[in-house]
Design goal:
Helices cover 71% and strands 0% of the residues. The radius of gyration is 20 Å and the shape is globular. Helix 2 packs antiparallel against helix 3, helix 3 packs across helix 6 and helix 4 crosses helix 5. It contains 6 helices and no strands.
């Protein structure tokens, strides 16, 4: 019995992690975009084709619908993946994710060294945990990176299972 080697590289793994991290960070924006695309797709389906080219597409209305439907399906799978991952998180990790997403929206300078989201996330996570649980805890950079990496790992595993990756 021959054992087949997996054809996966470090770059493949890095790309999967990057894709999962982007979906985790930009979940709300992409969910909003999904519903906009769904609404546009519904309107497109209700529009009668007159033979006149409209907008920029494939030039073939049927082919364009197939492309749009494929993108809708991809977004739907990713949205379900992120929602499944969030259900697994503890309440404190959900707070961390919320603050981490806010940090991503705020523009910081791109200084080399400490991740640009770390300072904002540290301070705001500590404040929010203190308000919610009356508990003083400021996580270290290493702890926050570990939390983030574990969240990305969870998303990758679910995404692979769902067929997103």
């Amino acid at each position: 019995m021959a054992i087949l080697a997996l054809d996966i590289t470090w770059q493949d793994i890095k790309k999967q992690n990057q894709t999962a991290a982007e979906w985790l960070l930009y979940y709300h924006q992409r969910r909003h975009l999904y519903f906009q695309m769904l609404n546009n797709f519904s309107e497109l389906a209700a529009t009668q084709y007159t033979g006149m080219p409209i907008g920029s597409g494939t030039g073939n209305p049927t082919a364009q619908k197939a492309v749009d439907l494929g993108k809708l399906k991809e977004y739907e799978l990713w949205i379900m993946t992120i929602e499944d991952a969030e259900r697994i998180l503890s309440p404190k990790k959900k707070v961390f994710l919320e603050v981490r997403r806010l940090a991503e929206d705020i523009k910081h300078d791109g200084d080399i060294g400490r991740p640009n989201w770390a300072g904002y996330t540290q301070v705001n996570y500590a404040e929010k945990i203190n308000r919610l649980y009356n508990y003083d805890h400021v996580p270290s950079d290493r702890t926050m990176r570990s939390w983030w990496d574990s969240m990305v790992d969870i998303v990758v595993r679910i995404a692979i299972k769902r067929g997103c990756l």
